[in-house]
Amino acid sequence: MADTRPAPRVGLFVTCLVDVYRPTVGFAAVKLLEDAGCTVEVPESQTCCGQPAFNAGDRATARDLARSTIAAFEGFDHVVVPSGSCAGQIRKHYPELLADDPAWAARARHLSARTHELVSFLTDVLGVTDTGARYDGTITYHDSCSGLRELGIKEQPRRLLATVEGLTLNELPGAEVCCGFGGTFCVKYPDISNRMVEAKTADIAGTKADTLLAGDMGCLLNMAGKLKREGSAVRVRHVAEVLAGVTDTPPIGEKA
Amino acid sequence: MQPTTHAFPENARKALSDERLQKVLAIAPAGFVNRRKQAADRLPEFEDLRDQGRDLKNHVLANLDTYLEAFEAKVTEQGGHVHWCRTDQEARDAILGICRKVGAKTVTKGKSMISEEIGINDYLESNGLTPIETDLGEYIIQLRREPPSHIIAPAFHLSKKDVEGTFRQAHTDLPPDRVLDEPKVLIAEARQVLRRKFQQADVGITGANIMVAETGSTVIVTNEGNGDLTQILPRVHVVIATIDKVVPTLEDAALVLRLLARSATGQEASAYTTFSTGPRRPGDLDGPEEFHVVLLDNGRSALLGTEFQDVLRCIRCGACMNHCPVYGSVGGHAYGWVYPGPIGSVMQPALLGVKEAGHLPNASTFCGRCEAVCPMRIPLPKMMRHWREKEFEQNLQPAAMRRGLALWGWFARRPALYHAATRVAVRALGMLGRGKGRFASLPLAQGWTRHRDMPAPEGRTFQQMWAEKKAAEKKGKR
To answer: In a structure prediction context, what are the per-residue pLDDT tens digits for chain B, which is 478 residues long?
Structure first.
């Protein structure tokens, strides 16, 4: 029997890093969502979820940006984010940030309940079991901290990656240990951050994988930057690129 | 101990270039992490116990005055004394007063972080007494005149070889050609030296992992039995503890104990769990003649009712630092004072002020591993963020970062301008980086490019490409 329900109307929260660094991830997300039967829109009035201000202790700016994000995404069935960190900010922190604002508290909770990280949205909400992609290579996967610990994203990307034709997953030892990015942490404490990312790239090398995937641009830029500095040939991509089969753009940090 | 917390970045740099320390850090935390995980996995109700632990401590903190007074009444009823101390100085004076009154010369000590917090060893020494640490790790670092680098493993930063050197230097009455190559031999030597000290001691000072209101008992856990000898052999037993350690009943104490050992060392129970209830009674075979509890506030009550109250649930298991990638990179001494790791990053600003300790809550990636393992479910990253808010309110953050964030915030609040500005910036960066796909060096991003390349952006923003795509689709339809 054909599904007669209307297509879910999804608002894509692009995230600032995908917007400026890697539009490919945004288009991969759109493809995955449309292939799964969603109608995707990208509100123009979105900028940043406000996490940098929130984590810098600037609550006023964080609240302002939370309000404008809420306003930008009202009316969608779901809001989908190709990042565990930004999705975590909206899901976990917006309600707390605006709890004492009578005009916005309920709207913040409403958005929180409708917001999902991309891969877990595909598996847990839409019930996607296979994206029909092909990727010839051995990959390893880093679990970004916010997605893992704030949103419980662990099995979802692995389940979908397992169905990608030609792909082998070599698990990364210490996949749950932070890569050392941490937003402004990596520039405020560069030496500590470096020690953390060094440990990560050593673990990545140990897996013998030719490709590193993760679900957050921040971590990916950090790990790619370190791998390239070390002269590693490991290719770095956002998990959405591989799941969507959108791999014609050069890997992160590599020339065309 | 003079804090060097304000110098955290320099402390960290030193620690990162200390090869000896880095070797220890490469191995030691993983052992704690694995053992804790195994212990938690073996106990099906472990996660429920964490909820219960959180709820218990929340209840205690909401009724702290009641339970502390009940505890005091029970201690007094059994012939003990409770000394209420608001500050570290008051606590030092209370302890010195007790020692003076009984004419003490030698004081043995069980492991206690509060005794580090109030700097009791130096104080007793400068007043002519001899304090002797009896926990093996504490004994080693006392000989080396170092502060602890971990709250349950004070000599965490040292290797077997370091300990051998320390013992050879300190135990000059033993044959210099003795073999000290095995941990077992080192422990036996410490044991032999400490036996004599236990017998000489007039006063024994221990901490308390728990205080039980219904019985007036204090509880300590150790794996060496040194705590028992410290509190039973001397004439006087002094317990030093902070007000947040009280629980209502013995059953509540059992809950804390079940969480504590598993979270700390991955044991089901510590080797020794000892309840002390008042001084020796007529007919008791052993025990001290006097029993004192020095009950310290030192800034804790000021946290009640604030956004930092939850930190008072801490039972000092050390799981947060064992799992912390920052602690794992720099070790405990870099934190510059008594409490390292995530718990230190929340406690030290409370105890030393945000001006002295402001670096610590900033030196976190908010990876959340500490909160994920905390037996009391303390939201440590959230509390660190609250300290950053205090810093922000007081204008204490570096000016460049403040200006950068303010500028970014100004644009982010204005979507049209933001998109126009990012379009221009990304275009420029994309063109510059096109040759290699990355930058080895970038002005204003030295912190990043010192250690890693900066991947180049693709060259156009998603918003721009999306708008063009939509416009083309519209045109196509017409």
So the answer is: 799 999 999 999 999 999 999 999 998 888 999 999 999 999 999 999 999 999 999 999 999 999 999 999 999 999 999 999 999 999 999 999 999 999 999 999 999 999 999 999 999 999 999 999 999 999 999 999 999 999 999 999 999 999 999 999 999 999 999 999 899 999 999 999 999 899 999 999 999 999 999 999 999 999 998 999 999 999 999 999 999 999 999 999 999 999 999 999 999 999 999 999 999 999 999 999 999 999 999 999 999 999 999 999 999 999 999 999 999 999 999 999 999 999 999 999 999 999 999 999 999 999 999 999 999 999 999 999 999 999 999 988 888 888 989 999 999 999 999 999 999 999 999 999 988 999 999 877 888 999 999 999 999 999 999 999 999 999 887 7
Q: Which domains does chain A have, with CATH numbers?
A: 9-124 (no CATH), 130-244 (3.40.50.11810)
Chain-chain contact of A182 with B401 (C-beta, under 8 angstroms):
no
d(CA B211, CA B176): 44
Residues of B in contact with A178 (CB under 8 A): 325, 365, 367, 369
Q: Strand B217-222's sheet: what is its strand order?
A: B246-247, B210-212, B217-222, B272-276
B window 5-44, beta carbon within 8 A of A = 9, 12-13, 16
Domain assignment present for B308:
no
Partner B contacted by A97 (CB < 8 A): no
DSSP secondary structure of B440-465: S--TT-HHHHTTS-EEPP-SS-HHHH
Residue B326 within a domain: no
Q: In Å, how far is B407's CA from the nearest CA of chain A? A: 11
Q: Is residue B398 part of a domain?
A: no
In 3D space, the residue among A225, A78, A93 whose CA is nearest the CA of residue B450 turns out to be: A225
Q: pTM value? A: 0.95
User: By the CB < 8 Å criterion, does B419 face chain A?
Assistant: yes
Q: Residue B341, by phi and psi: left (phi above 0), alpha (psi -120 to 50) or beta? A: left
Chain A's closest residue to B370, CA to CA, is A149
Rounded to the nearest angstrom, the minimum Cα separation between B462 and chain A is 4
**Within an 8 Å CB–CB cutoff, is residue B437 touching chain A?**
yes
The answer to whether the Cβ–Cβ distance between B455 and A252 falls below 8 Å is: yes
Structure tokens at B404: 């950068």
Please, which residues 358-417 of chain B have a Cβ atom closer than 8 Å to chain A? 362-369, 371-372, 385, 387-393, 397, 401, 405, 408-409, 411-413, 415
Q: In whole angstroms, give the CA distance from residue A253 to residue B314.
A: 43
Q: Is residue B462 part of a domain?
A: yes
CA–CA separation, B341 and B320 (whole Å): 7
**Domain total in chain B:** 2
Picking from B244, B274, B302, the residue at the C-terminal end of a domain is B302
Domain housing B137: 43-302
Nearest to B343 by CA among B354, B367, B355, B327: B327
Q: How many CA atoms lie within 13 A of B206 on its CB side?
A: 28
- Cβ contacts below 8 Å, chain A against chain B, sum to 207
DSSP tag of A212: E
In this complex, the residue of A21, A52, A182 whose CB is nearest that of residue B457 is: A21
